[in-house]
Amino acid sequence: MSERMTTRPAKVVVAAVVALAAATAVLAAVAVAGASSGGRPEARPAASRLTWHAASRRVRFPVYRPRQTLGLSGSGLLLHDGCLLAGWGTRKGAHFGLYEPGNSVQCGQPGEAASVGQTVVNGVRVHILVQCSTLPKCTIRDGERKGELLIFVPEKKPSHYTIQLQSMHVALRDFLRVARSFHRVH
Known about the structure:
The structure is a single chain. By secondary structure, this protein is α+β, with helices and mostly antiparallel strands. The chain is built from 4 helices and 10 strands, in the order βααββββββαββαβ. The protein has an 8-stranded antiparallel beta sheet.
């Protein structure tokens, strides 16, 4: 059931991949700074001190946070070019990240991915996507081990707002637990 999914013309996909790579690099820098400081908040960059509530007051879109983090430590919360970015875990181990709003070109749309199944999140049927080196022939196992699992989490209300959630080295069942655990921050 592996169908290739593209949602934007090639130029936009390339731009989105570049934007996603830049956002991932920013999150990685926040994670590395936190790890190198021994986890002491005072030694972290100012961007990592952003709280979920402060972020929700600074942006013009609803902010959602996962209740389920799989026991992984937060590696940072960042507002960058109108996007809210957050990550959990370590670069080399299990980790996942979110990009809000996930339905905008600058914050979401990570490029091509293979649809490997469907699931229901917040009452809406959504595709489970995988990005891997053998695209378009990606499997769930590829997403769990060598590639990335990707899902667009819909808002609980019908406003068409989505969160881009992606992970590496995380089992699909755990990834879906995170995807189904988002709650709005006020």
